[in-house]
């Protein structure tokens, strides 16, 4: 469905239901002039009345507001993939740091084990995040 204005959406849904502006106004407890303004994008219904409007049309609020749920999900998936990659990079960097610092005798065993443990934890989190993103 191509993107349309809120007013165009209200008008199309109202006509699809075979309602006049007055009938919709009566159900929404507003005047027919208010409905006319909505349909011409001169004003919008009160935010609190959007769920009622969606209910009258038999659609969800997301559909009425034309929310792009698929792109939202894709955005979350991309974010999770990026975070998993960042965590993997940090865990590799921590492993390299432990290796270098150990070879230079600049880190004690406690610190090295903590860094390696943290790196492994990040690696595990990245694997979980990657799994959820798929």
Short description:
It contains 7 helices and no strands. It has 134 residues and is mostly helical.
Between the first and last Cα atoms, what is the distance in angstroms? Answer: 27 Å
The count of strands amounts to 0
Mean pLDDT: 86
Given as residue ranges, the uncertain stretches (5+ residues, pLDDT < 50) are none
Query: How would a crystallographer describe the biggest sheet?
Result: none
Q: What is the count of DSSP helices, taking H or I runs of 4+ residues?
A: 7
Nearest-angstrom radius of gyration?
27 Å
Q: Helical amount among residues, as a percent range?
A: over 70%
Question: How would you characterize the overall build of this protein?
Answer:
By secondary structure, the chain is mainly α. It is 74% helix and 0% strand. It has helices at 6-16, 21-28, 32-39, 50-57, 61-64, 69-103, 109-133. Helix 2 crosses helix 3 (32-39) and helix 6 (69-103) packs antiparallel against helix 7 (109-133). It is rod-shaped. The protein starts with 5 loop residues before the first helix and ends with a helix.
List the main descriptive attributes of the protein structure presented here.
74% helix, mainly alpha
